[in-house]
């Protein structure tokens, strides 16, 4: 199967539209239709219905394979080009709350021992970090989320099947100093269903929390953690955050969670290709997980 045809098929399947796929790929709609027809002829079966555009049973099966195949092709390309990269290359992709003091300290240790090191940091949301690491676009990925103690994070495809825990810290409800909840010894999240929460889709999205029914009072689309904590401090809503993030803050109070039991977890993802242990990425990974 031609990977160009697979890429076009994935775009049509994900957008649900030949015209939207054409716009994304910068093709004409006619070219997209011809490529889908060529792929169907190659496989001898219909992959999509046309009006409306929807996956057939065969198309659903191919979509699962196609996504992984395209990721592996991208990873192969990145692995080959990595051999020509200048010494000291280190790409690190992180979700905003994955940048913790232990991560900063580990990177500082690596930089102190290598004057030629030129790190490149990418701060992005969870799906983007997972994809960047799986395709080899970055050497390491650090992702975070809230989960039950010792439970791994649920990663979107094409997630690393063997992520490694880096840190685990208590999850707390961040409230402004002076808020009625600030005097509570603990709170149950189920009791806060009617409270106003800040929906920070790129930092701490409500839909990834293991609790249903939390109501967003304000939507924040950015990835700056300081902006999120500033919004909480100003009384715009509550947020679920890792306890260490609020240490030393006079304007915010970290209220412990009684139920459900939750922790903030940071996990390390590696690029698919095995790394030379002398490379900066391998040394950083050893510091983070050792």
UniProtKB/TrEMBL annotation:
Pfam families: HTH_1, LysR_substrate. Keywords: DNA-binding, Transcription, Transcription regulation. GO terms for molecular function: DNA binding; DNA-binding transcription factor activity. The keyword Transcription regulation applies. One of its GO terms (cellular component) is protein-DNA complex. Residues 1-56 form the HTH lysR-type domain. InterPro entries: LysR_HTH_N, LysR_subst-bd, WH-like_DNA-bd_sf, WH_DNA-bd_sf. Transmembrane segments: none annotated. Coiled coil: none annotated. Belongs to the LysR transcriptional regulatory family. PANTHER family: LYSR SUBSTRATE-BINDING (PTHR30346:SF29), TRANSCRIPTIONAL DUAL REGULATOR HCAR-RELATED (PTHR30346). This is DNA-binding transcriptional LysR family regulator. It comes from Actinoplanes teichomyceticus.
């Amino acid at each position: 199967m031609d990977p160009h045809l697979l890429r076009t098929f994935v775009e049509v399947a994900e957008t649900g539209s030949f015209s939207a796929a054409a716009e994304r790929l910068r093709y004409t709609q006619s070219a997209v239709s011809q490529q889908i027809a060529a792929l169907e002829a190659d496989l001898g079966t219909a992959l999509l219905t046309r009006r409306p555009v929807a996956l057939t049973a065969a198309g659903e099966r191919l979509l699962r394979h196609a996504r992984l195949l395209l990721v592996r092709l991208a990873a192969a390309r990145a692995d080959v080009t990595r051999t020509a990269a200048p010494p000291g290359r280190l790409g690190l992709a992180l979700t905003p709350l994955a940048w913790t003091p232990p991560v900063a300290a580990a990177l500082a240790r690596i930089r102190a021992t290598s004057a030629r090191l030129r790190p490149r940091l990418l701060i992005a949301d969870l799906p983007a970090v997972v994809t960047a690491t799986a395709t080899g676009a970055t050497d390491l990925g650090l992702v975070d989320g809230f989960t039950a103690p010792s439970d791994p994070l649920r990663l979107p495809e094409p997630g690393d099947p063997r992520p490694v825990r880096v840190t685990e810290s208590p999850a707390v409800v961040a409230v402004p100093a002076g808020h009625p909840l600030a005097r509570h010894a603990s709170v149950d999240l189920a009791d806060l269903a009617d409270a106003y929460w800040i929906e920070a889709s790129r930092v701490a999205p409500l839909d990834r929390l293991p609790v249903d029914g939390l109501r967003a009072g304000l939507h924040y689309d950015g990835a700056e953690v300081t902006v999120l904590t500033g919004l909480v401090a100003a009384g715009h809503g509550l947020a679920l955050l890792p306890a260490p993030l609020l240490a030393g803050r006079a304007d915010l109070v970290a209220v412990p969670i009684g139920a459900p039991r939750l922790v903030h977890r940071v996990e390390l993802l590696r690029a698919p290709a095995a790394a030379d242990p002398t490379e900066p990425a391998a040394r950083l990974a050893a510091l983070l997980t050792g």
